[in-house]
Design goal:
The structure holds three protein chains of three kinds. By secondary structure, chain A is mainly α. Chain A has helices spanning 23-43, 46-67, 102-138, 140-155, 158-169, 173-200, 203-210, 215-251, 262-271, 280-308. Chain A has a domain at 115-315: MetI-like (MetI-like fold, Orthogonal Bundle), CATH 1.10.3720.10. Chain A has ten helices and no strands. Chain A is elongated and about 90 Å long. Chain B is an alpha/beta fold. Helix content of chain B is 28%, strand content 22%. Chain B is built from nine helices and twelve strands. Chain B has helices at 46-53, 79-85, 107-117, 123-136, 153-165, 183-200, 211-217, 235-240, 245-252, and strands at 4-15, 18-30, 35-39, 62-69, 72-73, 90-93, 171-175, 203-208, 220-225, 228-234, 304-305, 311-312. By secondary structure, chain C is mainly alpha-helical. Chain C contains 13 helices and no strands. The radius of gyration of chain C is 24 Å and the shape is globular. Classes of the chains: A mainly alpha, B alpha/beta, C mainly alpha. Chains A and C meet through helix 4, helix 5, helix 8 and helix 10 of A and helix 1, helix 6, helix 7, helix 11 and helix 12 of C.
């Protein structure tokens, strides 16, 4: 066989010009590009858009309630509207047993209901993600211990725990928020851990550690950005659950007496015989708000889940 | 008469983003006992052909052309007849990735399913036959009671092959059967396939992107690009003396150990396979072609004569008509 | 055998979790609760006791012992023998266990029958909806499932109460039976109870139906994309058979796991629904206990609820083990 002359090694490509763009700027640009891509996909999802519209409406309502609710509720003031009136031009949704317009109540309630939902799920997200990331990344003993704790919390029936905690620690808005956060972080933790486990297998993690990256570096720079989308989609769904939880707690009479939420309106209506007196609007108006807001968050959450989750499904 | 005859096959997927023409006019024949290798990069349409032969695509997928299996027009079969033809006329060995076998069902049950669905044997007998099939592929018959997760990758692939033989088909379609396996196991499975094919006189359509594998296994070779066949002929000839520049690039991409040409740089092929919804004008390969000429973006290449028993869809083929560039 | 090992493992997990729960309860009620438990009891009872009598009470309840290990061990022992103390305010002096016993059955019938019905119907509909994706049944079921999911159980209960008890007057507005107004016995009593139970039953059934539908449908759609489904079709297997024996059998696995996660929520729902319909089960009992801060009863609620969820989870785990051979490592 004729041996050919070995071709000379081609020259290495010329060195790159010095970078004019800082790494943090690149990160920012990359993130913005990812967001635009996400929004382009989200826009095509009808369910997600419908949910978003609903949410914007109620967020608008909540903001409005901060600045401009004309019948701004002050427990020491009683208005002189007719008691338990039906719908009319002055009171589009009727009035409650104190003569206060149900519409004002509902608008006022939107603020605290949304606030509790958002804050509680924030706590849940932070706690759940921290546990999930630590457990998934560390593995071994921490994983076993943390997962046992998570399982215990998953098994504990949330309302029973909430009742007990509220009975012991009192009925205060922050207690409620804390309780809801405490009873919902376990689900997030399991989800985040699963995601971390799948990310951990990827080679750039191995490379980063081989290059000497500390745990904190690897987690914040590599693990977290890949787990964030899943966390975010899950948090939206958690907000929905948090709002439902708050309404149940308020219905049991555990709500903060100084704040109006949709749940407290329902509780007030129910325990003062709105059903037997056939004044359904007082009950149904805040109920409809809860249903719509939870629907909104759920639809947005499902839509995000479709985009974020690597499922090969044609929709 | 050939076992499988495909004429002008066109397969177009309907997706949210529009129609995707995965296969754009493919014709070939496979005779009894013959092995046709079908090679190409991912996305060139070769797996789509496998699905089309047994009409496994979704209802919205548009299939045009003619597929004749054992003399029957597959595309015109009624649903009942189609189900009867599946597996008895032709069977498929899929890529042995994670979930090709039902994870909650015993392996033996899955083989027996193929047998009983076609009424080839009753229950007890079917299990005996399943055991015999496993033996044929080199597994102990008692493995029929195992679940898929209790088998290794190579063993699962053997089960797939045993299942494919269950109804004594005329044609076996092997769709990337060795891709997910490591090299040693790959060699074993290939050897098995070849000996079975020989012993049983089966016709086989062997689909893969790994050209070196095909050369060992196939009698004839067809290279696909962008939904069409761009070269075909006897396997060794196509591999060692390729005519179409794409085949040349594919063959060159597999380095031979010891050959000094491959000492320093493995030669690859720049660029990506074209998006089926945006196929380049003229010859779809021209943007990446090392031997591109001026006429290439304009002509529509057909499979022209390129030697004895060889055809290639390229202007450089011997039998290609002379073209004039429309612009100097 | 692998199955036995799996079962044993799950039971041990249950015991361990129960232990954690009881310990948690101990910390909550005997360590963290603001104020001495005896003081709390006295404040509620509103009586005035001499310091000597207070000491006597402390001694009787064991609060003069050191917390670790004496009180803790005693607590564990008491819990294990279902000696759960005495009601302080609701039914003063009565044994908590006794109070629970009379009401447990009513709630259990309600919960178990409605949950099973909900699961069965939800799963079957989910299979159909996933199989015929985009069809009329699927689309309408999707919408109604989402709405049901978004509705708090008590809201659903109140709506059903309004429509069927108040306006249509088809069913009574609450309670368990029509005594003392009537005194049916035997079969007519059963019918009377059933008549009262229908609305709360329906509420609980519908409340979680949507979620189960969505879960099953989603799992099925995931499974239908797998290669072994294509393989089954390629083998010439009929579509119905592919669905039943290949798709559903695999799709049930994640569904069972996810359904198990909702048991805690179902128990919460029972409490609120019993309130809406004044159904005299343990939910309503807990509500009254809450209003009166009757801690022994509340503790018992928590304990039984936790046990209930754990047992349900155990059943779910066993079901999963039956369905998925991969966890029964031989």
């Amino acid at each position: 066989m004729k041996t050919e002359t070995i071709p000379p090694v081609t020259d290495l490509p010329p060195p790159l010009p010095p970078k004019k763009v800082s790494p943090s700027r690149i990160r920012w640009l990359r993130r913005r590009r990812a967001l635009t891509r996400f929004w382009a996909q989200f826009r095509t999802n009808k369910m997600g858009l419908a949910g978003l519209v609903i949410l914007l409406f109620f967020i608008g309502m909540a903001i409005f309630s901060v600045f401009a609710n004309p019948d701004r509720l002050d427990p020491t003031i009683t208005t002189n509207g007719p008691v338990l009136a039906g719908p009319s031009w002055a009171y589009p949704l009727g009035t409650d047993r104190d003569g206060i317009s149900v519409l004002s109540l509902v608008v006022e309630g939107s603020r605290t209901s949304l606030f509790v939902g958002l804050t509680a799920s924030l706590i849940s997200m932070v706690l759940g993600s921290a546990v999930g990331i630590w457990s998934g990344y560390r593995g071994a003993f921490s994983d076993v211990v943390l997962m046992r704790v998570t399982d215990a919390f998953l098994v504990i029936p949330w309302l029973a725990l909430a009742i007990v905690l509220a009975a012991v620690f009192g009925q205060n808005l922050w207690v409620i928020i804390f309780i809801i956060g405490l009873t919902s972080w376990a689900g997030t933790s399991r989800l985040v851990r699963a995601q971390v486990l799948s990310v951990k297998e990827r080679t750039y993690i191995e490379r980063s550690r081989a290059l000497g990256g500390s745990d904190w570096h690897v987690v914040s720079r590599h693990v977290l950005p890949n787990v964030m989308p899943v966390i975010f989609a899950n948090t939206i769904l958690t907000i929905a659950i948090a709002i439902l939880s708050e309404s149940a707690l308020s219905f049991l009479g555990l709500g903060d007496p100084l704040h109006v939420t949709w749940g407290t309106i329902i509780e007030d209506a129910f325990s003062h015989g709105a059903l037997s007196l056939d004044k359904p609007l007082w009950l149904l108006a805040p109920s409809a708000c809860i249903v719509l807001v939870v629907l909104g968050f759920t639809m947005v959450g499902f839509a995000m889940d479709e985009i974020v989750n690597p499922r090969i499904r044609e929709r | 008469m050939s076992v499988l005859s495909v004429r002008d096959l066109e397969v177009t997927y309907s997706t949210k983003g529009g129609d995707v023409p995965a296969v754009r006019g493919v014709s070939f024949d496979i005779g009894k006992g013959e092995v046709l290798g079908l090679a190409g990069e991912s996305g060139c349409g070769k797996s789509t052909i496998a699905g089309a032969i047994l009409r496994l695509h979704a209802a919205q997928t548009k299939i045009g052309g003619a597929i004749t299996l054992d003399g029957e027009d597959v595309l015109g079969l009624s649903p009942g007849k189609l189900r009867a033809t599946r597996w008895t006329g032709a069977s498929i060995v899929f890529q042995g990735a994670l979930h090709t076998l039902n994870p909650v069902q015993k392996v033996g049950d899955q083989i027996v399913e193929a047998i009983t669905v076609h009424h080839m044997a009753a229950d007890k007998e079917a299990y005996v036959r399943a055991g015999a099939l496993l033996e044929q592929v080199g597994l102990p018959p008692r493995r029929i009671d195992d679940y898929p997760h209790e088998l290794s990758g190579g063993q699962k692939q053997r089960v797939m092959i045993a299942m494919a033989l269950a109804c004594s088909p005329s044609l076996i379609i092997a769709d990337e059967p060795t891709t997910a396996l490591d090299v040693m196991v790959q060699a074993q499975v290939l050897k098995l396939l070849r000996s079975l094919q020989n012993d049983l006189g089966l016709a086989m359509l062997f689909i893969t992107h790994d050209l070196s594998v095909l050369v060992e296994v196939s009698d004839r070779l067809a290279i696909m690009y962008a939904g069409k066949i761009v070269e075909e002929g006897a396997a060794t000839e196509v591999f060692h003396t390729p005519v179409h520049p794409y085949t040349k690039a594919l063959a060159a991409a597999f380095p031979q150990i010891g050959d000094p040409r491959f000492r320093r740089h493995p030669s690859g092929l720049g660029g990506d396979p074209p998006d089926p919804q945006h196929i380049p004008s003229g010859c779809p390969f021209h943007p990446r072609c090392a031997e591109v000429t001026d006429v290439c973006p304009e002509i529509d290449p057909q499979l022209w004569e390129a030697g004895a028993g060889r055809r290639a869809a390229c202007v450089h083929a011997v039998g290609a008509p002379a073209f004039e560039a429309s612009q100097p | 055998m692998g199955t036995q090992r799996y079962l044993l493992g799950k039971v041990m997990q249950l015991v361990l979790t129960l232990f954690i729960v009881v310990t948690f309860m101990f910390f909550l009620f005997h360590v963290f609760m603001p104020g001495d438990p005896v003081q709390v009891f006295l404040k509620q009872a509103g009586a005035k006791y001499t310091p000597a009598q207070i000491e006597e009470l402390k001694h009787r309840f064991g609060y003069d012992q050191p917390i670790f290990p004496n009180q803790y061990v005693q607590y564990l022992k008491d819990t294990a023998t279902l000696n759960l103390g005495y009601s302080t305010f609701l039914y003063p002096g009565e044994s908590v266990t006794q109070i629970y016993w009379t009401r447990m059955g009513k709630s259990l019938i309600l919960i178990t029958t409605s949950t099973i019905a909900s699961m069965v119907i939800g799963v079957l509909m989910g299979i159909y909806g996933g199989w015929r994706r985009g069809g009329r049944v699927d689309n309408s079921s999707m919408t109604s499932s989402l709405v049901l999911y978004a509705m708090p159980e008590f809201v659903l209960g109140m709506i059903l109460l309004l429509i069927f008890a108040k306006w249509l007057k088809w069913f009574p507005a609450g309670g368990y039976d029509s005594r003392p107004k009537t005194d049916y016995t035997g079969l007519s009593y059963v019918a009377d109870v059933a008549n009262h139970m229908i609305l709360p039953w329906l509420t609980l059934m519908l409340a979680y139906l949507g979620e189960f539908y969505l879960l099953m449908r989603s799992s099925l759609l995931d499974v239908l994309g797998e290669d072994y489904i294509t393989l089954a079709r390629a083998k010439g297997v009929r579509e119905k058979y592919v669905l039943r024996h290949h798709a559903v059998r695999n799709a049930l696995l994640p569904t069972v796991t996810l359904i198990a996660l909702s048991f805690g929520f179902i128990l919460g729902g029972v409490i609120t629904v019993e309130i809406v319909f004044s159904y005299p089960g343990v939910g309503l009992l807990s509500y009254h206990a809450l209003q009166n801060r009757d801690f022994p009863i509340l503790q018992a609620t928590f304990l039984f609820a936790a046990i209930g969820v754990m047992v349900a989870n155990l059943i779910a785990d066993l079901t999963y083990g039956y369905l998925d051979p991969r966890v029964r490592r031989a």
